[in-house]
Amino acid sequence: MKKNVHVLVSGRVQGVWFRASTKQKAEMLGVNGWVKNTNNGCVKAVFEGDEKLVDEMIEWCRSGPPLANVENVDVKTQNTVDFDSFEIKH
């Protein structure tokens, strides 16, 4: 079953390769969507794909790349959009 979630990750998540690592992990799993930095120091992402793989991405976000210090991951389920790739937005 396909799943689409909006994720907001807070903590020390900018300047630690969070977006690039997220893109790499998503592409490895075959999850589509996007990731970007927010103005308030968080990272926002949308993950879409197989439910188990999207759940794996959410779980990965709880720790992130080695230099990150994740404090919170807020997840909201939303309607699917049918993304055809994963991108870093600026």
Question: How would you characterize the overall build of this protein?
Answer:
- The structure is a single chain.
- The protein has two helices and five strands.
- Helix content is 26%, strand content 42%.
- The relative contact order is 0.35.
- It has one domain (2-81): 2-Layer Sandwich (Alpha-Beta Plaits).
- The model has no long low-confidence stretch (mean pLDDT 97).
- With 90 residues, it is α+β, with helices and mostly antiparallel strands.
- It has a five-stranded mixed sheet, with helices on one face.
Give the structure's gist in a few sentences.
The chain has a single domain, classed as Alpha-Beta Plaits.
Number of helices, counting only DSSP H or I runs of 4 residues or more: 2
CATH topology, which one?
Alpha-Beta Plaits
Low-confidence stretches: none
Spatial arrangement of strands, main beta sheet: 4-1-3-2-5
Number of domains: 1
Major sheet size, sense and barrel closure:
5 strands, mixed
Shape: globular
Secondary-structure map with pairings?
Blueprint: E1 2-12, H1 18-29, E2 32-37, E3 43-50, H2 51-61, E4 69-78, E5 86-88
Parallel strand pairs: 2-5
Antiparallel strand pairs: 1-3, 1-4, 2-3
